Amino acid sequence: MSLFKRRRFPVEIILLCVRWYCKYGISYRDLAEMMSERGVSVSPSTIFRWVQRYAPEVEKRIRLYQGPRSGSWRVDETYVRVSGRWKYLFRAVDKHGRLIAFMLSDRRNTNAAYRFLRKAIKAMSTYPPSSITTDKLASYAKAILRLQNEGLLPNDVVHRTSKYLNNILEADHGALKRVIRPTRGFQTMRTAAATLTGFEIMRMIRRGHYNKRGCRATGEIRLINQLFGLAA
Questions:
Q1: Measured in whole angstroms, how far is the alpha carbon of residue 165 from the centre of its chain?
Q2: Domain match, 92 and 176 both
Q3: pLDDT in tens, 141-191
Q4: CA distance 137 to 108
Q5: Which residues pair with 131 in a beta bridge?
Q6: Which pLDDT score is estimated for 164?
Q7: Residues 111 and 75 reside in one and the same domain
Q8: Enclosing domain of residue 156
Q9: What pTM does this model have?
Q10: Are residues 122 and 154 in the same domain?
């Protein structure tokens, strides 16, 4: 496979490391030790490069089978430390907690909210929102109005500001943070974005929030391998 050209490790080992790192929230050093116990000698820096290269690729492939989402969206942002500074991770789920979209941003202003919502709308073009619930940050209202004026969002979409309705997303922030914590922060926005992509997608896969037609996979290993054409 051209994606894995010049890699001296088998594709299955590479995907296993990417999946374990993004799934369990462990350090690269700990994962390298775990692989060593299984007879695979790989450095933490090599696993890091694999995650950076292939975690976004997993997202790209699983997104084709993400399945339906409710029209009732919950949108919020949380903090992530990058290069010693707090950045903003915008996230959206439906009322059942199924992932819609996410985006890492330097800022939490109208332009950032607009870019995120536009990304979410594009990702869910088949399942547009009927309502969007946010906190009381004014940027969201301005961004929604701009999207409606541009015809990217229907005018009848209801914008609600209710902390109670966003409890499901607030709780999900906490679960994501437990996976992020062992990283002890990220060095650059680029590496942070790639790693967070892996975390978000593996959490989506673990909860079965996808619909891979024609796939009878009973486990994550087989699913990931099938996405890359490795399984029968």
A1: 21
A2: yes
A3: 999 999 999 999 999 999 999 878 888 999 999 999 999 988 878 999 999
A4: 9
A5: 72, 158
A6: 81
A7: yes
A8: 68-187
A9: 0.90
A10: yes
